[in-house]
From TrEMBL:
GO molecular function: symporter activity
Stated family: Belongs to the sodium:neurotransmitter symporter (SNF) (TC 2.A.22) family.
Entry membrane topology: Multi-pass membrane protein
Transmembrane segments: 12-32, 44-67, 88-112, 145-169, 181-207, 227-248, 269-290, 319-347, 359-383, 389-410
Cell location: Membrane
Keyword hit for Transport: yes
A single cellular component GO annotation: membrane
Xref: InterPro entries: Na/ntran_symport, SNS_sf
Domain of life: Bacteria
Entries under Pfam families matching the protein: SNF (PF00209)
PROSITE patterns with a match to the protein in the record: NA_NEUROTRAN_SYMP_1, NA_NEUROTRAN_SYMP_3
The protein's name: Transporter
Database matches in SUPFAM superfamilies: SNF-like
Length: 457
C-alpha cells in the first residue's frame, strides 16, 4: 500500500514542482540569456513566444497526456500507444536522456566546486584561469585525457550520491520531496540575486542591450531555429522526460492546465535570469570600460568565467552573492538531473521487470561510470562535442519523429485530445491541433534539413 502510494505524486503541487524542477535548469540560467542576446535581444521574444505557443506548450500537453493515459515509462507508453512499431521512439528518448545525464552531472560538479570557491573569493584577475588553471584544471588540448581532476572528481561523485539518494527514495518521498525543498529555495535565492544585480551601478547598460530589439534579425531563419531549439531544451520536451513524470500522476489530474503552468513558470525563470545576468554584465562593462558585447562571453564561459570576475569586482557582500549564484546553479541543475536519470531508470524498470531499488542502483552506477570521462582534464572538449551532437541530432530529430509519428503515422491526435479534455479544465481546440499537425513538423523539418546541410554538405 505504502509502496504503491510512493510511486505516484502526492499532490498536484508536487507534480508541478517536479516538472518545473526538470524544466528550470542550467539552460535557463546560462543558456537563455546569451541565446536571446545573440539572436536579436528584445526582438528574440517574438520568435521565442511563437515557439513556446506553437511547439513548447502543445508538445508539453501532448507528452503529459501520453504519460497520464498510458501510465508507463516512455518506451512502455509508446508501446501501449501503438505497439512494437512505436516502442523504439521511447527508447530513443531514453538513450538521449542517458547521454545528457553523463555530462549534465559534471557541470553541476563545477557549480558545487565554485560554490565552495566563492567563499574564499580568491578568483584572481584572469578568470579564464579557473577553467584551465587552478579551479577546474581543464586541458585546452582536445583529446588529451590526462588524469582525473581531483577537485572536480569529488564534487562529481557527490552529485551522483545525492541523485542516488533522491531517486532511491521513490517518486513521492524522493523526487517530490526534494523538489519541494529545492524549487522554493531556488526561487528565493534567485530573486535575491536578481535584485542585487539590477541595483548595481551600470545595470541599465546591460538591460538596455539585452532588451534593445534588433528587428532586422527577425527575417533571419537561424533566429527562429534558435528559438525552437531553445524551447525544446528548456522545457525538457522530446526527451521522454515529461512522459515519465506524468505517468506518476493520479488518475484525476488536469494535464492541460499543468502544462500551461509548467511552461509559463519556466519562461518566467528564464526572463528573470536574462535580467539578472545582463544587469551584472552591464556592471562589468562599466567597471572595465569595455563595450558590452566584449564582456558577453558565450556558453560555459558566461557562468564560469564572466560571473566570477563580476563577483570579484562587486561592491559589498560579494561573498554572499557568489555563493548564492553558484548554489542556484547547483539546485537548478540537480532538480533537472534527477528527472533525466528517472527517465531511463523507469525504462529499465519496465523493460526488465526489476525492482525500483535495483534499477536505481544499476542506472545511477552506469551513468556515473560514463560521466567520469568529463571529470578528466579534457572534460570540456568532450562535453562540447557531445552537447552539440545531442542538442541537434538528438533533440531536433527526435522531436520531429515523435510529433510526426503520433500525428501522421499512428493518427493519435484525436485519442489524445479526448483524453486531455476529459480530465482538464481547458479544452483543446484548433490552436493545439494546427500547432502539432503543421507548424511543429514544418519548423522541425526545416531545422533538420538545415542541420544536415550544414554538417554533411
Ligand atoms: N530543461 C533543462 C534546462 O533548461 C535541461 C534539461 C534538458 C533537463 C533535458 C532535462 C532534460 O536546463
Ligand atoms: Na529550462
Amino acid at each position: 500500500m505504502d509502496k504503491q502510494q510512493n510511486s505516484q505524486w502526492g499532490t498536484r503541487a508536487g507534480f508541478i514542482l517536479a516538472a518545473v524542477g526538470s524544466a528550470v535548469g542550467l539552460g535557463n540560467i546560462w543558456r537563455f540569456p546569451y541565446v536571446a542576446y545573440e539572436n536579436g535581444g528584445g526582438a528574440f521574444f517574438i520568435p521565442y513566444l511563437f515557439a513556446l505557443l506553437t511547439a513548447g506548450i502543445p508538445i508539453l500537453i501532448m507528452e503529459f497526456t501520453i504519460g497520464h493515459k498510458y501510465r508507463g515509462s516512455s518506451p512502455l507508453s509508446f508501446f501501449r500507444l501503438a505497439g512494437k512499431k512505436a516502442e523504439w521512439i521511447g527508447w530513443w528518448g531514453v538513450i538521449v536522456a542517458f547521454v545528457i545525464s553523463t555530462y549534465y552531472s559534471v557541470i553541476i560538479a563545477w557549480a558545487i566546486k565554485y560554490t565552495g570557491y566563492a567563499f574564499t573569493l580568491k578568483w584572481g584577475q584572469d578568470t579564464k584561469d579557473f577553467l584551465y588553471g587552478d579551479v577546474l584544471n581543464l586541458s585546452e588540448v582536445p583529446g588529451e585525457i590526462g588524469g582525473f581532476v581531483p577537485g572536480v572528481l569529488i564534487p562529481h561523485l557527490f552529485v551522483w550520491a545525492i541523485v542516488f539518494l533522491i531517486l532511491f527514495g521513490g517518486v513521492k518521498k524522493g523526487i517530490e520531496f526534494a523538489n519541494r525543498i529545492f524549487i522554493p529555495l531556488l526561487t528565493v535565492v534567485f530573486i535575491a540575486i536578481v535584485i542585487r544585480a539590477v541595483t548595481l551601478p551600470g545595470a541599465m547598460i546591460g538591460l538596455q542591450s539585452f532588451f534593445q530589439p534588433d528587428l532586422s534579425k527577425l527575417t533571419n531563419a537561424t533566429v527562429w531555429v534558435a528559438a525552437y531549439g531553445h524551447i525544446f531544451f528548456s522545457l525538457s520536451i522530446a526527451f521522454a522526460i515529461m512522459i515519465t513524470y506524468s505517468s506518476y500522476l493520479p488518475k484525476k489530474s488536469d494535464v492541460t492546465n499543468n502544462a500551461f503552468i509548467t511552461g509559463f513558470a519556466n519562461s518566467s525563470f528564464e526572463l528573470l535570469a536574462g535580467i539578472g545576468v545582463f544587469a551584472a554584465l552591464g556592471f562589468m562593462a562599466l567597471q572595465s570600460g569595455l563595450p558590452i558585447d566584449e564582456v558577453v562571453s558565450v556558453g560555459v564561459g558566461l557562468a564560469f568565467v564572466a560571473f566570477p570576475s563580476i563577483i570579484n569586482e562587486m561592491p559589498g557582500m560579494n561573498v554572499i552573492f557568489g555563493v548564492l549564484f553558484f548554489l542556484s546553479l547547483t539546485l537548478a541543475g540537480i532538480s533537472s538531473l534527477i528527472s533525466i536519470v528517472e527517465t531511463y531508470i523507469a525504462g529499465i524498470q519496465d523493460k526488465f521487470n526489476i525492482s525500483r531499488g535495483k534499477a536505481v542502483f544499476f542506472g545511477v552506477s552506469l551513468s556515473m561510470l560514463f560521466s567520469l570521462i568529463y571529470s578528466t582534464n579534457s572534460g570540456l572538449y568532450f562535453l562540447d562535442t557531445v552537447d552539440y551532437f545531442i542538442n541537434n541530432f538528438g533533440v531536433a530529430a527526435l522531436g520531429l519523429v515523435e510529433v510526426v509519428a503520433i500525428v501522421w503515422v499512428f493518427k493519435k491526435l484525436d485519442t489524445l485530445q479526448t483524453h486531455a479534455d476529459a480530465v482538464s479544465d481547458i479544452r483543446l481546440g484548433a490552436w493545439w491541433r494546427i500547432s502539432l499537425r503543421y507548424i511543429t513538423p514544418a519548423v522541425l523539418g526545416y531545422m533538420f534539413i538545415d542541420l544536415l546541410r550544414l554538417n554533411i554538405m
